Amino acid sequence: MGIKTKITLAMICLIFITASLIAGFSYSKSKQELTAAVETGNLNLANTVAAKIQTINEREFKMVESIASLSTFRDENVSLHDKWLLANSVTAGKNKYFGIGCYDEKGVGYSTTGVYHDMSSREYLVISMQGKNALMDPNWSKTNGHLCTFYAVPFYNNSGRQIGEVSAVVDSSDLCHTMKTLTVGKASHPFVISRKSGRYVAHENQKLVEDNTVASDLASEGFKPVIARIMNGETAAEVFYDEAEKKKYAVSYQPIDGSDWSAVCLAPYADFYNGITELMAAMLLITVAALVGAALIGTFVVKFSIKPLKDVSTAITGIASGDADLTRRLNAKANDEIGEVVKGFNQFSEKLQAIIGDVKNSKDELMVAGENLNTSTQDTASSITEIIANIDSMKRQIEGQNQSVNQTAGAVTEIASNIESLGRMVQNQSSGVTQASAAVEQMIGNISSVNSSMDKMAHSFSDLRSNSQVGIDKQKAVNDRIEQIETQSQMLQEANVAIANIASQTNLLAMNAAIEAAHAGEAGKGFAVVADEIRKLSETSTAQSKTIGNQLTNIKESIGEVVSASSEASIAFESVSKKLEETDTLVMQIKSAMEEQNEGSKQITEALHNMQDSTLEVKNASAEMEEGNKMILAEVQALQDAAMHMTSSMEEMSIGARKINETGVTLREVSEQIGGSIGQIGQQVDQFKV
Prior knowledge:
Helix 9 packs across helix 10 and helix 10 (337-520) runs antiparallel to helix 11. The chain is built from eleven helices and eleven strands. The protein is α+β, with helices and mostly antiparallel strands. The protein folds into two domains: 19-282, PAS domain (Beta-Lactamase), CATH 3.30.450; 375-677, Helix Hairpins (Orthogonal Bundle). It has helices at 3-68, 71-74, 80-90, 123-128, 173-181, 206-210, 215-218, 224-231, 270-320, 337-520, 525-685; strands at 97-104, 108-110, 116-118, 134-140, 147-156, 162-171, 191-194, 200-202, 236-242, 247-255, 261-268. The strands form two sheets. Strands 3-2-1-6-5-4 form a six-stranded antiparallel beta sheet.
């Protein structure tokens, strides 16, 4: 690709990118501003629709509130029917009012037709009965055959207590007519929907309101999310795509104050944004025209400006071929950058002519220098070969010496290891002797402690044996006392049996006396009382005798158990006394054995002290041997390091010599190449005409 084509394409691309950026920025900025303006306008329109509907509702509420505030309505002495007549007389002759209803605080009263009804279940009355203004969505009335909206407000007596409600039935066609008078976009109209039921409240097509049509039932899939946001009471302006109609729509919506209605403004997207499409088409047309014009102008300018460069190209091609004439010069007419290039070419040709002339003069000198270099290189290679042979011989001798040093170092190291092992063994033996001495001394101390404990134990056993004998004597005395108590308890048992027999006989005598007293009649009453008391005393004695007998029986059983336990305790005391005598004998035997053990341990301690002294002498000698061996090992290590250093140095010398040899070979090859190159340079230089 020629430079002319490159420059032309670069200019076209630059112009295209610049025009595209300008067009894109202009389109984006215009679209942004237009979108903001359209959204603001649509929101203002939705606000206007909401304000108009709000004004209509407020006007109707004010009319009903003015009726409710009349003094007649505040007077509880005026009948509900008279109030109804007064309210309907106010709206008489006004076609948009289909009647006024008047009800008491319970929602019972006269409807718009004058019939007395219980209307407390009606939605608008339920709200107004709570002291609030009520507005009901438009509905088709079968009574009057019109589309009606219901407004209801409470009314109060002079003390401020709610005593009833007033409702007005208004023609809803006024709301639909208002929608027809407002335009959205080019030919669309706004509408109002109820956020509570989702039905149309006001629409240019009044039939939709009369049929209680739900807005979402007629909405496309793209519009349904918008309706959901409207039902949430949101305020916004946005754009959505209708899949069914394959086009975009712009919509704005806003809640209407004082009600649960929302005003909606919906129109095709093209009604607002056609200007952007036309602007984009115009920008594309201008960009294409600018590109075509720039391409034509750029081609002409580049073709005119590039001609001197073609002359330079022709001259350079001539130098590179044929006789390479360096005496040729170009005419430089232009004063621009290309003219400077032509002047530079002429100066380059003049300089090159001078250089080639000097090269021709230096060609012969270079050929002589190349031959001398080749001869010197061959002599250097021979000398390097002799040096390498001498280095290899010395290296072999040093390697033999190094092996001898390594063997010596290994032997010295093994000796040092054996000395260290001997030192460790002596150290272990010394530690063992020390530990054994400590253990034996500790054992002697323990034996002395045991002997002392055994003396105390023997004395304690003697006391214990004496105390056990006293316990046996005491236990026998207790047994004698218990046997006496057992005999006495037996005597008490016999006395208690005698008392029980006496009480039984006394009871029989008392019964006989009572019988005789009964036979005596009045004369025997006093005797009967005494006989009765004697009988009661006899019964009490009998009962107490039984209780005493039971207790004596329990005491006898307890005494028997104590006697048995006391006998067992006596046997146990005798057994303990015998065991104490046996244990005392064993303690004396152990005491004698421990005294003998103490004497033996002292002898072992003396032997261990002698062994420890011998071990210390061996340990000191081993330490002296280890120090001497360390000195020998250090000298051997120094000798080994020196041998290794010499080996390393010879290795480096060998590597350096071989590297020099390789370099000499390379230098010889380079010298030959230089000679060939000088010849080729001579042939090439001879082609130039200077």
